[in-house]
Amino acid sequence: MSRDRLSRRDGLALAAGLVGLSLLPRAAAAEMPAAARAALDRVLAGRAAEEGGITLRLPAIAENGNSVPMAVIVDSPMTAADHIRTIHVFADRNPTPEVALFRLTPAMGRAQVETRIRLGETQDVIAVAETSTGRLMIGRAEVKVTIGGCGG
Amino acid sequence: MSAPMGQPRLRLPQQIRTGEIIEIRTLISHIMETGQRRNAEGQIVPRDIIKSFVCRFDGQEVFSMELAPAIAANPYIAFPLKVEGPGTLELVWTNDAGEERRATAQLRPA
């Protein structure tokens, strides 16, 4: 499993080297279903998001898509001057791609949230974090789903 | 009629030091009906979810979450809080019908 992940990451790193880091989010999003693309675009609103700074802790394989543990951790000092304000989470192949919106404050001390999500099929989970200074970060993790969790 | 919202459960550390970042873990029982499922008669079961969660400390909002149908049944939500001094923690869950469940706890850091 970890070999798969490594090779995928290597591939991404190579792609980043070839096409330039700023192009990567769009290149990676090219295969994203239209509903997810639209949901993501509403949050980005034409602004660029940096890859990195976000850790999505999800199982590589979910036996049961009805309840998949997820933690999102964002690098941030969480001070009054510089903190994470929002984290949007999407599942790009769910019937409704929006999963959750978290609103954070410096009182938390750390930019970390945890919940359990439903995934209808194998797909990418995508998190977009916005800082109090208006910076956007994006991260993603693929989850292979054995039994889908959308009750369809 | 809305699906029942259970009594919320809240887990906090036994002892808290002033300035410590603690983890607040919460769970509430709820079916989280997605609005995409069909019943035995083939009709869509209407959406009925807990749509929002708010945490306040001494009346000040410190964390909140908007939930979509993609949140698993019996929503589990965990997040950190830096405890700078004593105060009241208040947690509120709201369903699609606007009904609320509330939990409170006194934080007394040593």
Short description:
The complex is a heterodimer of chains A (152) and B (110). Chain A is of the alpha+beta class and 152 residues long. Chain A has three helices and nine strands, in the order H-H-H-E-E-E-E-E-E-E-E-E.
| Low-confidence blocks of residues of chain A | 1-6, 12-27
The topology string of helices and strands of chain A comes to: HHHEEEEEEEEE
**CATH homologous superfamily descriptor of chain B:** Immunoglobulins
Report the major sheet of chain B.
4 strands, antiparallel
Radius of gyration of chain A: 15 Å
What is the terminal-to-terminal distance of chain B? 45 Å
Counting structural domains of chain B, the number is 1
- Low-confidence sequence ranges of chain B: none
Which chain pair has the greatest contact?
A: A-B, 31 and 27 residues
Elements of chain B, N to C (H/E):
EEEEEEE
The secondary-structure class of chain A comes to: alpha+beta
Gap from first CA to last CA of chain A:
29 Å
Number of helices of chain B: 0
Mean pLDDT of chain B: 96
Looking across the biggest beta sheet of chain B, what order are the strands in?
Answer: 4-3-6-7
Rg of chain B computed from alpha carbons, rounded to a whole number of angstroms: 16 Å
Helix content of chain B: under 10%
What does this structure look like?
Chain A: It comes from Neoroseomonas alkaliterrae. Chain A: Residues 1-29 form the signal peptide. The complex is a heterodimer of chains A (152) and B (110). Chain A is α+β, with helices and mostly antiparallel strands and 152 residues long. Chain A has a single domain, classed as SoxY domain (Immunoglobulin-like, Sandwich). Chain A has helices at 2-19, 24-29, 34-44, and strands at residues 50-51, 54-57, 61-64, 68-74, 84-91, 98-104, 112-117, 123-131, 136-147. In chain A, strands 1, 3, 5, 6, 8 and 9 form a 6-stranded mixed beta sheet that branches. In chain A, strands 2-4-7 form a 3-stranded antiparallel beta sheet, with no helix packed on it. The longest helix of chain A is centred in the first third of the chain and has 18 residues, at 2-19. The two termini of chain A are 29 Å apart. Chain B has 110 residues and is mainly β. Chain B has a single domain (9-107), classed as Immunoglobulins (Immunoglobulin-like), CATH 2.60.40.10. In chain B, 0% of the residues lie in helices and 47% in strands. Chain B is built from no helices and 7 strands. Chain B has a 4-stranded antiparallel beta sheet, with no helix packed on it. In chain B, strand 3 and strand 4 (60-67) form a beta hairpin. Chain B starts with 8 loop residues before the first strand and ends with a strand. The mean pLDDT of chain B is 96. Chains A and B meet through strand 6 and strand 7 of A and strand 4 and strand 5 of B. Strand 6 of chain A pairs antiparallel with strand 4 (60-67) of chain B.
